[in-house]
Amino acid sequence: MSPKRAPAPDPETAARQPPPHNLEVERGVLGSILLSGQAALHQAQSIVEVSDFFSEHHRRIWTALVAVAAGARGIDLLTAKDELERRGDLELAGGAAYISSLVDGVPKSTNIEYYARIVKEKAVRRALQARAFMMAGACANGHQLHELQEEAAELYRASMASDPEIRRRCAPTSVLAQEYAASVARGPGRRLHTGFDRIDRAIGGGIAEGEVLTVVKRPQVGGSLFGSQVIVGASHQGEASVFFTLEMMREQAFERAVGQRLGLTRIELEHLAGDGWRGLSELQHQQLEAFGRNVVFVDRAKSGIADLDASMLEATATLGRAPRLAVIDYLGLLSSGAKNLPLYQRVSEAAVDVKSFAKRQRVAVVLIAQAGRDPDLARSEGAARLGLDAARDSGQIEEAADFVVTLWRPELFSQMGPPERREVKGQLHGALVKNRRGPLVDFRLLLDERTLQLRPWNQGGES
């Protein structure tokens, strides 16, 4: 269900409002290019063109930057001002001081694509608004109904054609053939292993780009540990990854993941960190350095999908390559923008947003989600088996996921006696309850409460 929108203003009020635009974001695009040069310009050119800028100043500056790049000159403040002066446009573009001010307050040059998409969106809205006003005039001036219907259809076609994201989704067969050949050339690495053998075998070797594996669990069961263990495994394979920790601070998420990677307790990590990590063995130093090269932690509480998109650009710049895995912990803290809807619908909107994010970023996603309320005491405490209904009852989590895993820990049952609790201590049970590519399986892991590592359960060879 789509989020409720504010009521549209009446036509007269709408006509008096300024056309959609965001001058600060336009400045962000130009400032990012001036800071980062031709690479940033190429990123922006894949999304916007000169006519997308609302400000005449900005259109002239953009044209000058494109000309500088075409002349094989490096883009910076000096070459931009020189080109504008050569064209006689320096004062018409706001003057030398205005050009210099464009680089002030640009948060991250790596946000160029995020800024450019906003500029494009505003341009599309302006174009739609202009055509809609023309349609309103045609309706009032007695045009034939079939003419109005054709104008409405043309308005829709124009909006679709002007959206680069829609053009990418509606790729012709020739483009898809090239993309498929490129993905095959990448070989087995195109699927990302979770590190849990029974899951990987069941889903055909791992999670592919654009796919979402959702982990549904109760509080205290170990969903975050599951997500960080996947990150640890991906790092060990040399894969670039991002851990979005929307609940914990990134230092806490880092502590957990590094403890899992090095097999150390929190107390041991604190001692080693306090000593500048000098107590690590040579192998542990290598493992920690490799982990740092491959993993970025982002703690953006109450983030929306646009925030995650921006963070992916920053992660790409930090790691020097695009991440192949994103772990999001957790769904309930991901803002969908549908603030006035009930929780069930907000979670549903956010789950759909995550699926779109995975496809748009071409990244495998592990999404941690809380199960909804349950009248059964054992299930509500996270101690009894959860089925696919736990995902269905928590919003449209199932529909938006390619795979759904549920987790539970029998020892969390409050009415269990000490002998029974000792018997199941450390056991983390799980089930793959949705699988687009194969069978449903159960699995069992052993939680090491000292290092927080999840290890294969030795009895019966399960993992």
Structure description:
This protein is α/β, with parallel strands linked by helices and 463 residues long. It has two domains: 11-168, DNAb Helicase, Chain A, CATH 1.10.860; 187-461, P-loop containing nucleotide triphosphate hydrolases (Rossmann fold, 3-Layer(aba) Sandwich). It is 50% helix and 12% strand. It has helices spanning 11-16, 23-36, 38-45, 56-70, 77-87, 96-101, 112-140, 145-161, 164-169, 173-185, 197-202, 223-236, 250-262, 266-274, 282-294, 305-319, 343-361, 377-380, 389-392, 397-400, 418-424; strands at residues 191-192, 207-208, 212-217, 241-245, 295-298, 325-329, 364-370, 403-408, 427-435, 441-447, 454-456. The strands form two sheets. Strands 5-4-6-7-3-8-9-10-11 form a nine-stranded mixed sheet, sandwiched between helices. The longest helix has 29 residues, at 112-140.
Write a short abstract of this structure.
The chain is α/β, with parallel strands linked by helices and 463 residues long.
Question: Order of strands across the biggest sheet?
Answer: 5-4-6-7-3-8-9-10-11
- Could you tell me the number of beta strands? 11
What is the helix fraction of residues, given as a range?
40-55%
Structural class: alpha/beta
How much of the sequence is in beta strands? 5-15%
Q: Report the CATH superfamily of the largest domain.
A: P-loop containing nucleotide triphosphate hydrolases
Number of helices: 21
Global morphology: globular
The assigned CATH architecture of the largest domain is 3-Layer(aba) Sandwich
Largest sheet entry: 9 strands, mixed
**Poorly predicted spans:** 1-6
- Integer-rounded radius of gyration: 26 Å
CATH C-level category of the largest domain = Alpha Beta
Under CATH, the topology of the largest domain can be stated as Rossmann fold
Number of domains: 2
Q: For the record, give the distance between the C-alpha atoms at the N and C termini, rounded to a whole number.
A: 38 Å
Could you report the average pLDDT, rounded to the nearest whole number? 86
